[in-house]
Amino acid sequence: MTDSPRPIARERRKVGAKTDDAAAKRPRRTKAEQRAESLEQILDAAEYLFSRHGLYGVTLRDVAERVGIHTTLLHYYFEDKRKLFEEVFARRAAVTSGRRMTALEEYERAAGASPTVEGALHAFLDTDLDLYYEGGERWMNYAAFCARVSNTPEGAVLMDVHFDPVVLKLVSVLKRALPDYSDEDIFWGYHFVTGALMNTLARTGRIDRLSGGVCRSDDFPSVKQRIAKFMAAGFLALRDGA
Amino acid sequence: MTDSPRPIARERRKVGAKTDDAAAKRPRRTKAEQRAESLEQILDAAEYLFSRHGLYGVTLRDVAERVGIHTTLLHYYFEDKRKLFEEVFARRAAVTSGRRMTALEEYERAAGASPTVEGALHAFLDTDLDLYYEGGERWMNYAAFCARVSNTPEGAVLMDVHFDPVVLKLVSVLKRALPDYSDEDIFWGYHFVTGALMNTLARTGRIDRLSGGVCRSDDFPSVKQRIAKFMAAGFLALRDGA
DNA sequence: ATTATCTATAGATCTATAGATAATGC
DNA sequence: ATTATCTATAGATCTATAGATAATGC
Question: In chain B, whose CA is at the least distance from the CA of A213?
């Protein structure tokens, strides 16, 4: 693991130099604060590293070094490595899921009796892209983490656990927008949508190189401009005999 | 690593029991054959394991055990673990790339002056889906391997190396089909297409569980029935001011 | 005579635990 | 008195190499 030791936002405690820094700060922090801060730093570091190298490509030592703590402290806060991984996934899942759920409910209310595919997809996709893009680096890391994980067998199970409700909500709105569609068409359509979304969140840099710089992996606004309209048209095209 | 020790197609040499089996067979095989067979078995096993657990989630021992050989033999045939990984990628890349290239050229010839988006996508996507679906388990493993790898930073670089030519060919046909489109729209459209394709190739089982069995991850024919038409409509929808 | 495969092993690294120390909490 | 953090270390496992053995090749 040779990641650039980009400092995470909060100041690192330096190993073997806990005098100045720490002595100046610790007294001001309550234990609850210390705990919360350590947990956050650990999860941020793990999120960053897991998003780039996956569960097995990251060692607990990598995480500890990035935070500037001793490896064993990870065992104090987390049962084991897998649990740390799952908590990285879970931490922000509720936020994105909740936001999209709310957006879908609001859209349903606003659209009344005749929701559209594009409207539902705007609520689902734009809300998510905004969250990552406006949430800064950590949210972008989380997005890449999810995308990476989504293409793996175990990762897909985590997706089930955390995202099924909001996805099924989207599906229910799509069904109302396309009342004569089979479930099969709706689900395959969703499958295409989520593939495009995950490919965006992964931000591998491939589209940058492929397009010779015309598109940029981290340009979520450009994706947002196009994805809902693109996918909605795709759904409608399935009408006449898939 | 606790994969079911599903035997790979060729009979395994059993460790510590090389008497019957081997004694009966070896004499009949030339060294070139032996070499070719071992290489193939190793690559097949690695492909299977890497597709499920990624580069770091698989040990050389896992691969060797699956083949039924000693770990050190892997070092005899491959420089190191990463090289093995790259050779798994490269082995079938030329085949899929070549087939799609041919299909696109044939389509261009057939379509003459007015190629369509849907026609180009059929050539590109259907050719690939057929290859995996008709190629049996190994090709399906390779598809999952590629999909998994495509969502990672290093994996994306392998995609560049092996697939850029055929993708740029597709892009050139799309440009002819959509002469008034910006490069940006074309490339983002491709980005959505490949996301949907990779999500299909990954076969994580998520769509099966999400849809309650209505869709199946390994049902590539159903995807093939829909994907080109779906994506073509998406491209066309970008026309009026993305 | 050359190539394929195995034995033995080095050296590094990884996860996890037990127990000590240094902070905060009442 | 409790919680956060560090020291020391066990036990397992991993990649890779050196060198021996057992096949095929002429």
Answer: B184
Q: Do B191 and A207 touch (CB under 8 A)?
A: yes
Q: Is the CB of B29 under 7 A from strand D?
A: yes
**pLDDT in the model for residue A13:** 38
Q: What is the pLDDT of residue B5?
A: 44
Question: For residue B242, is pLDDT > 70?
Answer: no
**Please, which pLDDT band fits residue A3 given cuts at 50, 70 and 90?**
low
Do A156 and B204 lie within an 8 Å CB cutoff? yes
pLDDT for the residue numbered A241? 60
CA distances to A90, B61, B173 from B119, rounded to whole Å, are 42, 46, 10
Euclidean distance between CA atoms A131 and A96, whole angstroms: 7
- Number of neighbours of residue B70 by Cβ within 10 angstroms: 13
CATH fold for the domain made of A91-241: Tetracycline Repressor; domain 2 (1.10.357)
The full DSSP string for chain A is -----PPPSSPPPPTT--THHHHHHGGGS-HHHHHHHHHHHHHHHHHHHHHHHTTTT--HHHHHHHHTS-HHHHHHHSSSHHHHHHHHHHHHHHHHHHHHHHHHHHHHHHHTT---HHHHHIIIIIHHHHHHHHT-HHHHHHHHHHHHHHTSHHHHHHHHHHHHHHHHHHHHHHHHHSTTS-HHHHHHHHHHHHHHHHHHHH--SHHHHHTTTSS-TT-HHHHHHHHHHHHHHHHHHTSS--
> Does B214 score more than 60 pLDDT?
yes
Contact A158, A149 (CB under 8 A): yes
Residues of A in contact with B232 (CB under 8 A): 237
pLDDT digit string (tens) for B84-115? 999 999 999 999 999 999 999 999 999 999 99
Query: Per-residue pLDDT for A26 more than 90?
Result: no
Q: Give A237's contacts in chain B (Cβ within 8 Å).
A: 229-230, 232-233
pLDDT tops 60 at residue A2: no
> What is the distance in angstroms measured between the alpha-carbon CA of A54 and the sugar C1' of C6?
34
| Chain B hits for A190, Cβ within 8 Å | 207, 210
User: How many CA atoms within 13 Å lie on the side-chain side of A78?
Assistant: 20
Domain boundaries, chain A: 91-241
Asked if B197 lies within 8 A of A202 by C-beta distance, the reply is no
